[in-house]
Design brief:
4-stranded antiparallel beta sheet, Alpha-Beta Plaits, alpha+beta, globular
Length: about 90
């Protein structure tokens, strides 16, 4: 299992942010929107597999970054700290 940070810019008419949220939910892993267009994903998938899954919904004008992370610190996020910490530790 690994911890990933996924960030994207949706620059075209599709997908919408709601469509992207639903697409990321299909991963079936620990996940949560931590900033406006930044997600935490904890999954056994490889970085390349995660990237390929997300690319399925993106348009040619959209931007995507997938980073495998081994440590992180933060002050305020859009999710509660305790569940995120628990997911992070479970996937570390």
């Amino acid at each position: 299992m690994a911890n990933y940070i996924v960030s994207y810019d949706l620059n075209g008419p599709k997908p919408s942010h709601a469509e992207m949220d639903k697409h990321l939910e299909k991963i079936g892993a620990a996940r949560g929107r931590i900033l406006e267009s930044v997600w935490y994903v904890g999954t056994p998938q490889t970085q390349a597999q995660l990237l390929d899954h997300i690319k399925l919904i993106l348009g040619t004008e959209d931007l995507l970054l997938v980073v495998q992370a081994t440590s992180a610190t933060w002050t305020k996020l859009l999710v509660e700290n305790e569940p995120l910490l628990a997911a992070w530790k479970a996937n570390a």
